[in-house]
Design a protein that fits this description.
18 helices; FAD/NAD(P)-binding domain; binds NADP nicotinamide-adenine-dinucleotide phosphate; five-stranded parallel β-sheet; binds flavin-adenine dinucleotide; 20 strands
Length: about 575
């Protein structure tokens, strides 16, 4: 990737500097980390591989990219002024607007001056004796820091399957997660899209409007619910802004960290007619909240069959060609893979110039100069879009040589799957914090809330260490093992663990199959983090401290002390580990 900012080409290399903390990444996580570190009096430098802040929304500029958590909730909650002044234009904000928001935050809180853009961190090495991290970059920087905050993103390492013959292809090949900044004009071109996940489902209807022909290569069909996106209703905006803190608190008490009407009743208790009405009503609302129609849809296969049947009937009612409709109908658990949200996706396959090619049994054979070959048939193409997703959760960690105590590398430690305590830290890697790391709710919650809760917790922990004079903090192996076991146990209860999704690393060959995010529910997780902190960082060990595991002063984390919504997460659900996370 070439340097995208001329200014960053000429910046001096840093070799002598030392900071309290290095932040890797300047997306919503890195930006908020910088803000909190500064607020608590820590010096910090951030390195960002991209040319600006934002960063999911800096890279993913494909046509149709937008959030699928309501804009009013997909935003920071730490500043009431920010909440009040920012105006979203649509229910689900488009990528340029989210990027503009990130830029606004960076400007408003003067965060850019601490960020080095177009700079990839290549190594982070812990020195046992000095208790410091040395961070190296691809620009030759070599800086020291007491703490290292990994804000590298859960969906930031593009998965580019190495299809045979790609280099021979005469046309352009794009990845949705590394989209050209000046846009792509597909007018008059024969375009191929590989993949049918969220990125493909958002972009296909728009690419189809431009392209001469569109060929979609589908390995696994996906369920998708209409977004029913619309301009943001000013009355709704006013009502939220009248008491934004209460709105945020209500969201935090919910399993996903964002609010929507949720029915905790079991699906099979209702009659088929009642269920049909309920599904129609939730379908009409659209989006991810569709999964909130009943409380047991992700735990009980028979209940799940009812919503899967409903969704397949919708596909059959939209797609006119029966063979194409059948090909588009998933046969796996509804919501097992990340649910997609679309605008006109299935209807696109009614257009005469759009074709669906099944590559489930006969995979893509190769690229040639002129297109893609499947089962011996050449599909002639001028351009190809790889909507093939990401090496999720751990992909960006894998690209950094991270060496902890006694030469142990994170890659070695995580060979059979990531091991963390609360998704915040990993034993053997002192003072290295992970923002939305594996083992935390991360991608199963509204990400910006997950990010803020993590950063508040870790910066409070750093301030506590300063208070008590601790040099290092890291999890105890026993507590980490118990947490990993708990993460796995909770995952096994959910139907989500049953299919080959990126949640389990199954989308990229060779990765260990482990359910990576914590599926026990956002407020349940937050309560656990609060308890750990209140008990003097139970499960963590401090080195060099005076009375370190004493109850700490709670500063930033205070706002996360919110009760669990017992209407949606009942004590019985908690006991059975069946907290419904959509
Ligand atoms: P990122 O925004 O991914 O930023 C991390 C950045 O770290 C990377 O982009 C990279 O440039 C940088 N980095 C990584 N490694 C290095 C390195 N070695 N050196 C230097 N820099 C490095 N979440 C939701 O909650 N709701 C949504 O609607 C939603 N929609 C999404 C749509 C798309 C297309 C995608 C891809 C993700 C979406 N997500 C959504 C998840 C989204 O990633 C998060 O919401 C959020 O933006 C993550 O912020 P982050 O700062 O943790 O990570
Ligand atoms: P994804 O969900 O992993 O989808 C990738 C697609 O590529 C899948 O259909 C996959 O098929 C296919 N694929 C991968 N390798 C292939 C190969 N070798 N041959 C053929 N097909 C192949 O990735 P994504 O669509 O980029 O989405 C990732 C996540 O980002 C989402 O789940 C979501 O969390 C977030 N996102 C959100 C939005 C939003 O609406 N806000 C939009 C985009 C992304 P298989 O299923 O068979 O593996």
């Amino acid at each position: 990737m070439t340097r995208s900012s001329p200014a960053s080409d000429t910046r001096p290399v840093e070799t002598q500097t030392s900071y309290d903390a290095i932040v890797v990444g300047a997306g919503f996580a890195g930006l908020y980390a910088l803000y909190c570190l500064r607020r608590m009096g820590f010096s910090a430098r951030a390195f960002e591989a991209g040319g600006d802040v934002g960063v999911t929304w800096y890279w993913n500029r494909y046509p149709g990219a937008r959030c699928d958590v309501e804009s009013l909730q997909y935003s920071y909650s730490f500043s009431e002024e920010l909440d009040q002044e920012w105006r979203w234009t649509e229910k689900y904000a488009p990528q340029p607007e989210i990027l503009a928001y990130a830029n606004h935050v960076a400007e408003r809180f003067d965060l850019r001056r601490d960020i080095r853009f177009d700079t990839r961190v290549t190594a982070a090495t812990f020195d046992d004796k000095e208790a410091t991290w040395t961070i190296e970059t691809d620009r030759g920087d070599r800086v020291a820091a007491r703490f290292c905050l990994m804000a590298v993103g859960c969906l930031s390492a593009a998965n580019r399957p190495p299809f045979d013959g790609m280099a021979d292809f005469k046309g352009a090949i794009y990845h949705t997660g590394e989209w050209p900044h000046d846009g792509v004009d597909f007018t008059g071109l024969r375009v191929g899209v590989i993949g049918t996940g969220s990125s493909a489902i958002q972009s296909i209807p728009i690419i189809a409007e431009q392209a001469k022909t569109l060929t979609v290569f589908q390995r696994t069909p996906n369920y998708s619910v209409p977004a029913h996106n619309a301009p943001l209703d000013p009355a709704y905006e006013r009502s939220v802004k009248a008491d934004y803190p209460a709105f945020r608190a209500r969201a935090r008490s919910r399993p996903t960290g964002f609010y929507f009407p949720f029915n905790a009743e079991p699906a099979l208790k209702a009659t088929p007619q009642e269920r049909q009405r309920q599904y129609e009503q939730f379908w009409a609302r659209g989006g991810l909240p569709f999964l909130g129609a009943y409380g047991d849809l992700l735990f009980d296969k028979k209940a799940n069959d009812t919503i899967a049947d409903f969704a397949r009937a919708k596909i059959r009612s939209i797609v006119k060609d029966p063979a194409t409709a059948e090909l588009l109908c998933p046969d796996n658990v509804f919501g097992c893979k990340r649910l997609c949200v679309d605008t006109g996706y299935f209807d696109t396959f009614n257009k005469p110039h759009v074709k669906l090619v099944d590559v489930s049994k006969t995979p893509i054979e190769r690229f040639t100069a002129d297109g893609i070959v499947v089962a011996g048939t050449l599909h002639p193409l001028d351009a190809v879009v790889c909507a093939t997703g990401f090496a999720a959760m751990t992909g960006s960690f894998d690209k950094i040589r991270i060496t902890g105590r006694a030469g142990l590398t994170l890659a070695e430690k995580w060979r059979a799957g990531p091991r963390t305590y609360l998704g915040l830290a990993s034993a053997g890697f002192p003072n290295l914090f992970m923002i939305t790391g594996p083992g935390s709710p991360s991608v199963l919650a509204s990400m910006i809330q997950s990010i803020e809760q993590h950063v508040d917790w870790m910066v409070d922990c750093m301030a506590h260490m300063r208070d008590v004079g601790a040099r290092t903090v890291e999890p105890l192996v026993d507590d980490e093992d118990k947490w990993v076991e708990h993460v796995n146990e909770v995952a096994q209860v959910s139907l989500r663990s049953t299919c080959s999704s990126w949640y389990v690393g199954a989308n990229v060959p060779g990765r260990p199959r482990v359910f990576m995010p914590y599926i026990g529910g956002f407020p349940v997780y937050v309560t656990k983090c609060n308890e750990v902190m209140d008990a003097g960082y139970q499960g963590f060990v401090f080195d060099g401290a005076r009375a370190s595991n004493t109850p700490p002063q709670i500063r930033l984390t205070q706002r996360w002390h919110v009760p669990i919504d017992s209407d949606v997460i009942s004590p019985a659900m908690l006991a059975a580990r069946r907290v419904p996370v959509v």
